[in-house]
Backbone:
């Protein structure tokens, strides 16, 4: 059921007393619907994807609390770090469920730089920001985060889902099918060390930039146990840097400074291989969603998921 703006006003009354001056939907994010609200202060109002989150609200709240606690325990430059602060409803709950069963969440808006097209951030600053995030996440006790998306970087899992779409009513792309079958085994051999708590979707679109520097992260719903290599690879992919040696070098230097660690030559080589693997996985996810009828990723225009699948898999 579509969300109308007058409905968002009703939702807001469950959180704040001030009437909104302006409500506009943001064209950002592939999963949830997101609205920028001006009502004295500025807020972000989100309508969460029920298919993904309806049975995981306890885990979402736990992960948010764990991250906030870890962030507040940090010192030094991390004291300037920014984090979206969720607002409780009048029922003293972070989530509000409306009469249609839709799940809502409100938090304070954080102003940041906007990057469009070729006007991207400095890879060194993106790397430093991710390194700092990983330092914060090291403060979370082992096993404290309840990963909702446990297969985000699991090629075998998404390959099986892709294979299950063989009887799909949607037309297949024989070129993509050929590339996937020819490359799958090579990418499946690439393994990365795990044992970390990671963001899980560390693309630059989830970073808060202020005057070119990363000052925080948003969309922390994907926090999970995993590998820092997957976060780094996803960040490089989103920078369009996975085939650019200069950008990769700048990103690594920034990450080392932010994480206060040094990556060996073998580690760097593994990271570059993993970048290609992560892009391949994302391409399969878009392709599978297209074949399934676009049930996961929101499309801004018909055929967008298939376009993204082609772009990522062919790269």
Residues:
């Amino acid at each position: 059921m579509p969300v109308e703006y007058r409905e968002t006003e009703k939702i807001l009354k469950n959180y704040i007393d001030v009437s909104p001056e302006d409500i506009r939907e943001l064209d950002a994010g592939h999963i949830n619907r997101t609205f920028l609200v001006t009502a004295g202060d500025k807020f972000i109002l989100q309508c969460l994807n029920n298919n993904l989150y309806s049975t995981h609200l306890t885990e979402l709240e736990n992960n948010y609390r764990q991250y906030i606690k870890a962030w507040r325990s940090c010192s030094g430059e991390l004291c300037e770090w920014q984090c979206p602060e969720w607002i409780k409803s009048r029922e003293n709950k972070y989530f509000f469920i409306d009469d249609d069963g839709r799940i809502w969440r409100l938090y304070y808006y954080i102003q940041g730089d906007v990057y469009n097209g070729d006007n991207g951030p400095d890879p060194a600053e993106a790397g430093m920001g991710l390194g700092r995030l990983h330092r914060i996440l090291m403060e979370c006790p082992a096993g404290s985060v309840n990963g909702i998306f446990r297969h985000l970087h699991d090629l075998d899992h998404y390959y099986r889902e892709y294979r299950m779409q063989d009887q799909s009513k949607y037309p297949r792309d024989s070129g993509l099918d050929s590339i996937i079958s020819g490359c799958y085994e090579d990418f499946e051999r690439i393994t990365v060390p795990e044992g970390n708590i990671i963001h899980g979707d560390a693309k630059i679109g989830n970073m808060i930039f202020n005057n070119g520097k990363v000052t925080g992260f948003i969309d922390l719903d994907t926090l999970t146990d995993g590998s820092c290599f997957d976060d780094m690879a996803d960040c490089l992919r989103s920078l369009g840097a996975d085939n650019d040696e200069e950008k990769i070098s700048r990103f690594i230097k920034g990450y080392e400074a932010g994480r206060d660690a040094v990556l060996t030559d073998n580690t760097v080589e593994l990271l570059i291989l993993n970048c290609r693997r992560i892009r391949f996985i994302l391409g399969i996810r878009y392709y599978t969603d297209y074949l399934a009828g676009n049930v996961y990723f929101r499309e801004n225009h018909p055929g967008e998921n298939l376009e993204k699948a082609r772009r990522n898999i062919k790269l």
In short: The radius of gyration is 20 Å.
